[in-house]
Structures are given as structure tokens and as C-alpha cells.
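User: Please fill in residues for this 351-position structure.
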């Protein structure tokens, strides 16, 4: 996954120090984009261990998105990754699946003359069991349109947009969607997926985001019988967390020296020297113990990412999946094959 490594390098070399809502500071950069050819294998990172618990969490998370649930009551039995942002009942202030599968439709006087709104006759509209109001299944619309009878009009549509962004939700929400919209676009007989992400935690969130959308593209390719094309990813605020308090602030004073060191790196191994320079010079961080075979880099993600840059990416694994409809997608129906990785490393999540 050279594309991920290039992204990390570009942000470390060209980013600037930025404080943010969390107590953990960042090295951030505006506007990054890359494409991954999904026909060349499944883009699961190999420079840290992404199978076992991370693969499981990502897969349960995708199953949860597709379920349309706005709560994590079932998800939290499988993984804790969303627990910090949910209330005691497991409800979330913004949930991707709720918008992907059950986007609220204005009703009655909320519809102005001349405006076009799908009605209850539409195959993608239903009266929601939970709210009793009309909701729209964006993903169902995408799949059915791709399977439409007239390829030029249907599968070639340039309107296959799924949005998790509801302006009236995002202001008050404690965590508005980060990967907030994607577009499916067929070119030369191949299905491509373009994701726009407003805010991207490069070390922790992005490896999950790539894995989840690459798998979603595969799911859509299976159920529509259209060959898999590319995953294309736009990141607006692309950031690497660099620690709390003195540790984070050390980067504000030492970023240009750090970036001079990076500018002199000529081989992968030299990233380890820069990592060691950071570990020797930056104020120490308290980190919790993790299992043997793993190393916890704490809230400063920079040294761990430098270690990843020093490692050679291994061959991409494959995913086995055989489904005919969206409803058949489940944890049990997917298997990861031929995955091999470097040893594990951990980072703490900025909340
Ligand atoms: N700072 C931050 N980064 C994120 O990536 C992120 C948020 N916040 N808030 C909301 C969601 C939740 N997501 C998360 C949350 C936690 C992990 C995490 O703890 N990952 C660990 C362990 C994974 C596991 O238990 O399976 C990791 O080492 O990857 C990953 C993504 C992505 N999002
Ligand atoms: O799928 C996800 C979800 C979240 N993130 C990251 C991006 C940011 O570091 C935080 C969200 O904080 P905001 O202040 O709301 O931007 O979570 C991610 O990378 N991927």
C-alpha cells in the first residue's frame, strides 16, 4: 500500500502544527487525494497487523453501517471502537447507517410546490418502523440503479451519491460524520468509488476507512455484477496526532527541524533514525502496556508512522465474498485470504 505511505510522507514533510477540539495536537495538511486500483488486490495495510481484531472491528462496523441502525447496541457486543461517542443506551449523535439507509424525507408542508421528492410509491421509500416518518434508502437506490435495464441511462448514471451529511444534524452533533459522502461511478465497465472525508486521522481512522470502502465497493461490484475498478479518496483536513500538552507542543517548536531531517531521508531505514531522534528529543509520553508482540506509541502517532514508513509493504491480500444481494452481506460471508503483515503497533485514540 504505497499510496498510504506516500500520504503519510506528504503530511509529515509538508504539514503544519495545528491544535484542535481534542486535547491531542496534530500535524495537519489541507487537501489530499489518491487512488487505489482495487483490481490489484484488497488494500489492507500490511505495515501493521490489520487482520484479527482490527479486521473484525472494521467488518462489524461495515455490517453496522449497512444495517441502518442509529445505535451501537449490537455493534458494541462485537467491538468497542464506537463506544466513546455513544450514550448509555448506545445512541449516537450522528450514525452513518441511519443516513445511508433511512435518510429523512420532508413531508406535507415541508415540501414546496415544484420540488421533487420521492413518495411512498418509490421502491426506496418506506415509512420508518422506529419514527413513523418517511425515509429514503440511498444505498438501495444506488444498487437498483446500477442494475437497471438501460446501461447507458442507469449504470452510467453520474448521480449515484450517498450522503451521511444532514446540515441540521451536524451543527449540534458531538461527532458529525467524517467520511460524509461517496459517489459510485462506472467507467469503461468498472465500478469506482470516490469518498470525501472532511477530517482524517491518518494513523487510526484512515486504515479502517480504506478497508471499509474498498470492501463496500467489492460488495457493490458483487451484487451488481460490474467489475471492480478504483477507490478514490479525498481528505480535507488530513492530520497526524502528535501528542498532548508538552509532547504535542514540542512539535510546534521543532517541526521545521523535524521536517529538515525528513527532507534528508534517502532510504526507508533512515525513517527509523528520524523516529529515534524524535524519541530521544521529545518530552516522554505515558503509555499503557499492550500485549507482547505489539508496541503502544500512545497519542503521538508520529514515531509509529515513521516505523511503518521504514517497513516494506507486503503483497496485498484477497477477500472472498460471494453474495447476490445487499441483504446477504454479513460478517460470516466474508473471508480475508493470503494476508501477511509486519508486527503490530498501537496508537491511542484522540477523543
Ligand atoms: N480520533 C479519532 N479517530 C478516529 O479514527 C475516529 C474517531 N476519533 N472517532 C469516531 C470514529 C471511531 N473510529 C475508530 C475508533 C477507534 C479506533 C481504534 O481504537 N482502533 C484501534 C483498535 C481497534 C480495535 O479495537 O479493533 C487500532 O489500533 O486500530 C479506530 C477507529 C474512527 N473514528
Ligand atoms: O471514520 C473516521 C471517523 C473519524 N475520524 C477522525 C478524524 C478526526 O481525527 C476525528 C473527528 O474529529 P472532528 O473534530 O470531528 O474532525 O475522527 C477518521 O479519521 N475516520
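Assistant: Residues filled in for all 351 positions:
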Amino acid at each position: 500500500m504505497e499510496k498510504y505511505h506516500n500520504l503519510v510522507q506528504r503530511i509529515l514533510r509538508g504539514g503544519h502544527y495545528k491544535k484542535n477540539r481534542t486535547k491531542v495536537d496534530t500535524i495537519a495538511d489541507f487537501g489530499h487525494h489518491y487512488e487505489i486500483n482495487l483490481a490489484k488486490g484488497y488494500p489492507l495495510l500490511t505495515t501493521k497487523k490489520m487482520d484479527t481484531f482490527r479486521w473484525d472491528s472494521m467488518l462489524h462496523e461495515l455490517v453496522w453501517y449497512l444495517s441502518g441502525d442509529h445505535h451501537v447496541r449490537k455493534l458494541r457486543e462485537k467491538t468497542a471502537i464506537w463506544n466513546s461517542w455513544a450514550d448509555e443506551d448506545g445512541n449516537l449523535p450522528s450514525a452513518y447507517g441511519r443516513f445511508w439507509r433511512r435518510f429523512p424525507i420532508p413531508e406535507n408542508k415541508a415540501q414546496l410546490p415544484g420540488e421533487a421528492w420521492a413518495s411512498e410509491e418509490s421502491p426506496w421509500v418506506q415509512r420508518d418502523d422506529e419514527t413513523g416518518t418517511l425515509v429514503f434508502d440511498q444505498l438501495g437506490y444506488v444498487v437498483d440503479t446500477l442494475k437497471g435495464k438501460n446501461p447507458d441511462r442507469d449504470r452510467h448514471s453520474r448521480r449515484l451519491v450517498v450522503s451521511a451529511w444532514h446540515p441540521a444534524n451536524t451543527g449540534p452533533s458531538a461527532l458529525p460524520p467524517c467520511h460524509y459522502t461517496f459517489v459510485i461511478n462506472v467507467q469503461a465497465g468498472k465500478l469506482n468509488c470516490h469518498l470525501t472525508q472532511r477530517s482524517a486521522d491518518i494513523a487510526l481512522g484512515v486504515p479502517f476507512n480504506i478497508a471499509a470502502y474498498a470492501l463496500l465497493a467489492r460488495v457493490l461490484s458483487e451484487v451488481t455484477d460490474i467489475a471492480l475498478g478504483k477507490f478514490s479518496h479525498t481528505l480535507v483536513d488530513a492530520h497526524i496526532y502528535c501528542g498532548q500538552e508538552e509532547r504535542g507542543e514540542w512539535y510546534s517548536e521543532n517541526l521545521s527541524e523535524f521536517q529538515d531531517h525528513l527532507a534528508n531521508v534517502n532510504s526507508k531505514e533512515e525513517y527509523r533514525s528520524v523516529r529515534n531522534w524524535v524519541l530521544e528529543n521529545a518530552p516522554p509520553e505515558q503509555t499503557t502496556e499492550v500485549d507482547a508482540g505489539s508496541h503502544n506509541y500512545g497519542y503521538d502517532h508520529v514515531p509509529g508512522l515513521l516505523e511503518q514508513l521504514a517497513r516494506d509493504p507486503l503483497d496485498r491480500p484477497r477477500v472472498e465474498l460471494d453474495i447476490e444481494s445487499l441483504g446477504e452481506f454479513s460478517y460470516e460471508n466474508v473471508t480475508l485470504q493470503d494476508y501477511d503483515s509486519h508486527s503490530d503497533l498501537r496508537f491511542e485514540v484522540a477523543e
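For context: Residues 53-54, 57, 79, 81-82, 85, 175, 201, 204-205, 208, 346, 349-350 surround 5,10-methenyl-6,7,8-trihydrofolic acid (ligand 1) (CB under 6 Å).
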